[in-house]
Write a structure and sequence with these properties.
The complex is a heterodimer of chains A (285) and B (223). Chain A is an alpha+beta fold and 285 residues long. Chain A has one domain: Alpha-Beta Plaits. Chain A has 8 helices and 8 strands, in the order βαββααββααβαββαα. In chain A, the strands form 3 sheets. A 4-stranded mixed β-sheet of chain A has the order 6-1-8-7. Chain A has a two-stranded antiparallel sheet with strand order 2-3. The longest helix of chain A is centred in the middle third of the chain and has 13 residues. In chain B, 48% of the residues lie in helices and 4% in strands. Classes of the chains: A alpha+beta (285), B mainly alpha (223). At the A-B interface, helix 4 of A face helix 6 and helix 10 of B.
Chain lengths: 285, 223
């Protein structure tokens, strides 16, 4: 059944010009996914933030200073050539994380993970977090936990799942209605629905009727200069993080500002000028 | 034969006898060892296979006995009480409110169990704290809609002939994990005759592989 159906490829595009850095996405993510918080959330070696907002700046003196904010969920990499060999999935010795070829979503199974943290070392986006301690909630707050997401224990790795439980519920609803299609509105991540600026657009990158597909316009062909890169955006404003690695993230970013787009990767002197006008602004060589 | 020769022969025979004199003793020691091994093996084997499962699982009686036969006669099918909601989620065991469609705080019949239900739960507006035999660990996502609507299965194919049960059997809880014994299975040899004998991850995978050609990805059943 899985193979008969046309596979989904869920992804998102985040408009960095709309993002105000308010952090609502991060808060909604934590409450939706039972992410424990720490007494000192500023201790970044201990705190867990599936959705983390980074602050970018153009490093220019006043009055030319500009600031942008970049929310970073798990990028749900398709791996080189988009074959499903994500950096974390490839290294996991326990098969505690796998690539769902039906959705394009990278899973994390907490009961299977034994906490070697190899995946954290492999992830180029620092999207994975380790539970150094058992989660502790203020008394009474454990009653507000979502029953749709299993809580984690100490010693396992966790990360953003694109709110997969919402996909499970949406699919269940579709089955009950005797339909095979999951409507775009039925499966949206918590951060998408919470963002007050509407900066996050989520949907199926394989479905041309979905908004995310219309914005990103993913290239169906591999990048001729770097065949590892697949699904590059044909929208000149859209880029992905460290796109030249060939990890093929399903999280796209969008900005009018050139300096923001340039921060999506590390460019050597002169490299940026060669690629900035090519689609997606991050072609190789 | 001379006497000397005779003596020598006898003497040599004596020597031979003396040389093997310890053997019968050794045999006794070996026999004891074998007996000790067998007895120790039996003790370990029996305690591991008979005693340990009893230690591992604690038994709980349900709050009161539930007669499925009687209820199916009245309602006609499973879906009257255990139904899919409009959003596709499964209602599971009915809340007391659903029972009030038929029941009141005055018992309709004359069974002891209904009297308990009416007095303790209906009159006091409490939910019955049923033990759920088929409850999966909380890392598992199971969709009844997918199996009933999409795969066309009926309740019986996984749950067995529940509608023929007149009594609620004791619930067995694993003391270490807190899970129901129905998940791990009753048979210590791991022999499974019916789908409802055991419902571990591999049992899901075997059926999925047979029916859909694929075990499914982790997130299909995990959350």
């Amino acid at each position: 059944m899985i193979h008969d159906k046309k596979a989904h490829k869920y992804g998102m595009v985040i408009d960095l010009d709309k993002c105000t850095g308010c952090g609502t996405c991060a808060v909604s993510c934590m409450s939706e996914n039972n992410v424990p918080f720490k007494e000192d959330e500023s201790d970044k070696k201990d705190s867990i933030t599936w959705m983390r907002v980074y602050r970018l700046t153009n490093n220019r003196p006043f009055p030319d200073t500009e600031v942008a904010f970049l929310p970073r969920p798990c990028q749900h990499c398709g791996g080189k050539g988009d074959h499903g060999h994500s950096p974390c999935v490839s290294v996991c010795p326990a098969t505690a994380t796998d690539y769902g070829y039906d959705t394009g979503i990278v899973s994390q199974i907490y009961t299977r993970c034994f906490g070697c943290r190899y995946c954290m070392a492999a992830c180029p986006y620092h999207a994975r977090y380790f539970n150094w301690w058992d989660p502790v909630w203020p008394e009474g707050m454990e009653k507000y936990l979502s029953p749709n997401v299993s809580p984690r224990m100490r010693g396992v790795v966790e990360k953003c799942s694109f709110c997969y439980h919402r996909y499970q519920l949406a699919r269940e609803k579709a089955y009950a209605n005797g339909s095979d299609e999951i409507p775009e509105a039925d499966y949206q991540t918590a951060c998408t629905t919470a963002c007050p600026a509407g900066a996050i657009v989520f949907g199926d990158l394989n479905n041309p009727s979905h908004k995310v597909h219309q914005i990103v316009k993913p290239d169906p062909h591999p990048d001729p200069l770097n065949p590892d890169v697949v699904g590059k955006s044909r929208n000149p404003k859209v880029f992905r993080l460290l796109e030249r690695l060939g990890t093929n993230p399903k999280v796209y970013y969008m900005s009018e500002r050139e300096w923001v787009r340039k921060l999506g990767d590390h460019y050597l002197d002169g490299e940026w000028d060669k690629v900035k006008n090519v689609y997606g602004s991050a072609s190789h060589e | 034969m001379s006497e000397i020769e005779n003596k020598t022969e006898h003497g040599s025979m004596d020597g031979a006898t003396a040389g093997t004199a310890g053997d019968p003793k050794n045999d006794t020691g070996l026999g004891l060892g074998v007996i000790f091994f067998i007895v120790a093996f039996l003790i370990c084997f029996l305690s591991g296979w008979l005693l340990f499962p009893k230690l591992l699982y604690s038994k709980h009686e349900q709050p009161f006995n539930f007669d499925h036969v009687l209820h199916v006669e009245e309602t006609g099918d499973c879906e009257s009480c255990h139904y899919l909601r409009d959003d596709g989620t499964f209602s599971g065991i009915p809340k007391t409110e659903s029972c009030l469609d038929c029941h009141t705080d005055e018992p309709m019949g004359d069974t002891k169990d209904e009297a308990i239900f009416a007095a303790e739960y209906v009159a006091k507006e409490q939910e019955v704290p049923w033990y759920v035999y088929a409850r999966q660990p909380d890392c598992v996502f199971f969709s009844h809609a997918a199996h009933i609507n999409a795969a066309g299965m009926d309740c019986k194919s996984c749950h067995g002939p529940i509608e023929e049960t007149r009594t609620s059997r004791p619930y067995e809880e694993n003391r270490l994990t807190g899970y129901s014994r129905d998940i791990w299975g009753k048979n210590i040899w791991g022999i499974k005759k019916n789908p409802w004998d055991r419902m571990k991850m591999n049992d899901c995978a075997v059926c999925h592989e047979k029916e859909t050609g694929h075990k499914g990805y982790c997130f299909q059943c995990h959350k």
